[in-house]
Specification:
Length: 298
């Protein structure tokens, strides 16, 4: 399962309406989102990447000789919706399923919502599919290896004569109240970041957040642009951004980091490099396969 994205600018309004729970956005709001997609070529590659990840995962699972697997794709906010995938599974007489979200870190408001929709559609169908849920995979060795390699590559991209760059890990922000509710989201993010930093000997790094709503002062922070400015204030001229909370290229990476954050960095005399997204990296596919097998064994 993945968040989903519109396949054309014409689909942006319906997509945005679904995100808002059926409340239609204003023309100005739609216009701003359309403009962001237009700046990255008219659409996000998330849809295409997700289906390729699914194909590669199915191939990997079936090559292991541990059973017969079919990978279904369900999106949170666009077709094929999560509910479509569950209905397809029911029609195929699937008996057992593993629900896996393409997000390594668990939060009830994000990953938990995907799981809720799986369960509700399963009940609506009167289905007897036994579903195992993969809550998180943020410390999977293949995931950590892939992220560490990409961070190291980005750091080396500044050249041998450059000083050690500051590393900013980023993820989607959520309301700060989740910490008081015992949600593991931020602690899992810090755990992943810490493992990568220790592995690479990174002494100075920060966790920052993206997509904080305008005028919101009660969401997890700091906001990524402020983190970039703060790195500059500490004297760093080279900064690596690693969107560790995201698996695939999409709007928050291709626009928000590659365009907006790059602009902020340039304004502050900072050279910024972003790590490559995992996308269809073989190590990501191994991490997903590990998660599936662990869920089955559990």
């Amino acid at each position: 399962m993945a968040y989903g994205s519109p396949e054309s600018l014409a689909e942006v309004k319906a997509y945005y309406t679904h995100i808002r729970g059926g409340t239609e956005p204003s023309a100005a709001e739609v216009g701003r989102l359309v403009a962001r997609y237009a700046r990255i070529g008219g659409k996000s590659p998330l849809h295409t990447i997700t289906f390729e990840e699914a194909r590669l995962l199915e191939e990997r699972l079936n090559s292991a000789g541990k059973g017969n697997f079919k990978v279904y794709v369900g999106m949170k906010h666009c077709k094929p919706f999560i509910e479509d995938a569950v209905r397809e599974m029911a029609g195929d007489m699937v008996g057992k399923a593993v629900a896996l979200v393409l997000a390594p870190h668990y939060a009830k408001m994000s990953v938990g919502e995907y799981f809720r929709r799986v369960e509700e559609e399963n009940k609506r169908q009167g289905s007897t599919i036994a579903v195992s849920f993969v809550k998180d995979w943020h410390t999977n060795s293949h995931f950590i290896e892939a992220v560490s390699r990409n961070v190291a590559d980005a750091m080396e991209g500044f050249g041998a004569d450059a000083g050690k760059p500051f590393v900013i890990f980023s993820a989607h922000s959520l309301p700060a109240r989740i910490i008081g509710e015992g949600d593991p989201y931020e602690s899992q993010l810090k755990e992943s970041c810490g493992i990568v930093a220790d592995r690479l000997g990174i002494g100075d790094w920060a966790l920052a957040y993206q997509s904080i709503p305008a005028r919101a002062d009660n969401w997890l922070g700091p906001e990524i642009k402020q983190a970039i400015r703060s790195a500059g204030e500490k004297g760093y001229r080279d900064v690596v951004v690693c969107p560790i909370g995201f698996v695939s290229d999409h709007l928050e990476i291709l626009h928000d980091i590659d365009i907006e954050c790059q602009s902020v960095a340039a304004e502050n005399g900072i050279r910024l490099k972003r790590t490559e997204s995992l996308n269809t990296d073989p190590l990501l596919i191994e991490a997903l396969a590990d998660s599936v097998w662990s869920a089955i064994q559990g």
